[in-house]
């Protein structure tokens, strides 16, 4: 009987620990790691004043939140491709340990005529890497001009929809919704939003991003 007491005590301690684990997790609250944005010129403030881009606006919005202030790290590079970002991503995840990864990529791949299957493969690897690192993912979908043809455009749009469905990640189907082709909101090259368009870009992302925070 005496010899059995330590065993019973150990069982009780294990049971108590298992019951308390969810409580302790809740007490720690939601993850507060930074929001990491990996994108191209649409997120890198191309040809607009520094600090006026949608990522900068997001940083100021989150900094003003008293409940859960959150740092925003902008790792976007003008001209970036899905392949280039995939190479950079492991180091970015290890360095910043984000709780949310925003992926805004694919436009430069499409402009180079990269096959949608290759775009998908690179993006999928990024999504998996983020999940393995404990980060939630928001995909910002893109489109290309009509001269690329309806078949290519549809296949490219399907890349983002399929990834979101199969991996359970959040998706903004078309990040430039309400901005593309709008006078005053696009630069003269027809590809990059103006400073005036940046608040709209943030609002396009925000409804999907906020729940991840």
Q: Tell me, rounded to a whole number, the average pLDDT.
A: 88
Q: Round the Cα radius of gyration to an integer and report it.
A: 21 Å
The computed structural class is alpha/beta
Which descriptor suits the 3D outline? globular
Distance from N terminus to C terminus (CA atoms, Å) equals 53 Å
Oligomer: single chain
Give the percentage of residues in beta strands.
5-15%
Strand order of the largest sheet: 2-1-3-4-5
Low-confidence stretches: 13-30
DSSP E strands, number: 5
Largest sheet: 5 strands, parallel
Order of helices and strands: HEHEHEHHEHEH
Number of separate helices: 7
Percent of residues in helices comes to 40-55%
Q: What's the short story on this structure?
A:
With 213 residues, the chain is of the alpha/beta class.
Describe the protein's architecture and organization.
With 213 residues, the protein is an alpha/beta fold. Helix content is 48%, strand content 10%. The protein has helices at 4-28, 54-63, 82-96, 107-111, 116-132, 150-167, 198-209, and strands at 35-39, 72-74, 100-104, 136-140, 170-172. β1, α2 and β2 form a beta-alpha-beta unit. Residues 13-30 have low confidence and may be disordered.
């Amino acid at each position: 009987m005496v010899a059995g007491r330590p065993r019973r005590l150990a069982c009780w301690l294990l049971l108590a620990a298992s019951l308390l684990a969810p409580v302790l997790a809740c007490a720690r609250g939601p993850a507060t790691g930074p929001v990491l944005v990996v994108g191209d010129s649409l997120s890198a403030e191309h040809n607009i004043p520094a600090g006026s881009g949608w990522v900068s606006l997001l940083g100021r919005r989150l900094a003003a939140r008293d409940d859960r202030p959150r740092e925003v790290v902008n790792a976007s590079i003008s001209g970036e491709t899905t392949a280039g970002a995939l190479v950079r991503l492991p180091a970015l995840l290890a360095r910043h340990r984000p709780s949310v990864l925003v992926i805004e990529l694919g436009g430069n791949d499409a402009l180079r005529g990269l096959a949608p299957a290759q775009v998908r493969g690179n993006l999928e690897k990024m999504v998996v890497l983020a999940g393995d690192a404990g980060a939630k993912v928001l995909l910002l979908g893109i489109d290309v001009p009509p001269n690329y043809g309806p078949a290519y455009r549809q296949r490219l749009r399907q890349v983002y929809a399929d990834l979101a469905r199969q991996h359970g990640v959040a998706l903004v189907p078309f990040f430039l919704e309400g901005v593309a082709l709008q006078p005053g909101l696009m630069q003269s090259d027809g590809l990059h939003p103006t400073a005036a368009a940046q608040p709209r870009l943030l609002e396009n992302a925000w409804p999907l991003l906020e729940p991840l925070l």
